[in-house]
Design brief:
Elements (H helix, E strand, L loop, with lengths): L8 H12 L3 H12 L5 H22 L12 H16 L1 H8 L8 H9 L3 H33 L9 H16 L1 H8 L21 H8 L1
């Protein structure tokens, strides 16, 4: 049965479960149904926001303490965690707030927070704030901003919310593909080698042409 055929709590439960496991497609489809008047905006928003936050916190609490060694069995996730953990230790709040907007790092950031010892209350609070903002941004763009902008251009049709919905899905896919570049940006640069105290600066050899002209 499709989401559009569900009524009552089933549709909102589907949105909640989907966002727990990073199912943006179901949430975006639900926002289209909100615009069509088939689902309640408040119910979809609450289900998506809570589901997104719960999903992030499951990774965090599962990997706290000794359980963080479990992720070492998966080299891809372990590498991502190690790349992010140094930045998390210095900018934990900003990284947690950005977590829900970076689908490719949804496991890496909670794992890095658990590994770095970020307090549970801090992570849970900021994770909920991030998820509330993410759900509001997606729903606002698909349900109101996108169709209103198209209407101002003279485009008024039943399919207008499908345009911003497709843009959200495409942008999420693009962000997922950009994960390696984002990880590289989060990786701190190695410190430049320093010369011992009192040692003269390294001598740079002049080009041969300059040396020949100087001798002449």
């Amino acid at each position: 049965m499709s989401l559009s055929g569900w009524t009552g709590p089933l549709a909102y439960l589907a949105v909640f479960i989907a966002t727990v496991v990073e199912g943006e497609m179901v949430f975006v489809a639900a926002t289209v149904l909100v615009h069509a008047g088939r689902l309640d905006a408040a119910g979809v928003y609450a289900a998506a926001a809570l589901g997104g936050s719960v999903g992030d916190q499951i990774y965090y609490y599962a990997l706290r303490g000794r359980l963080h060694a479990l992720i070492d069995r998966f080299p891809t996730f372990a590498t991502r965690r190690d790349r992010v953990v140094a930045k998390v230790r210095r900018h934990a709040s900003a990284m947690i707030l950005a977590c829900r907007f970076l689908p490719g790092l949804r496991i890496a950031i909670p794992a890095a927070c658990a590994y770095a010892g970020v307090p549970a209350a801090r992570f849970s609070t900021l994770s909920l704030v991030s998820s509330l903002g993410w759900a509001a941004a997606v729903m606002g763009f698909v349900v109101w901003l996108g169709p209103t902008s198209l209407a101002q251009l003279g485009v008024k049709a039943w399919w207008t919310p499908l345009v911003p919905a497709a843009l959200v899905v495409a942008f999420s896919y693009w962000l997922g593909k950009r994960t390696p570049a984002i990880e590289e940006a989060l990786t701190p640069s190695p410190p430049a080698p320093s010369s011992p105290r009192g040692a003269p600066p390294p001598r740079t050899r002049r080009p041969l042409r300059e040396e020949g002209s100087a001798r002449g």
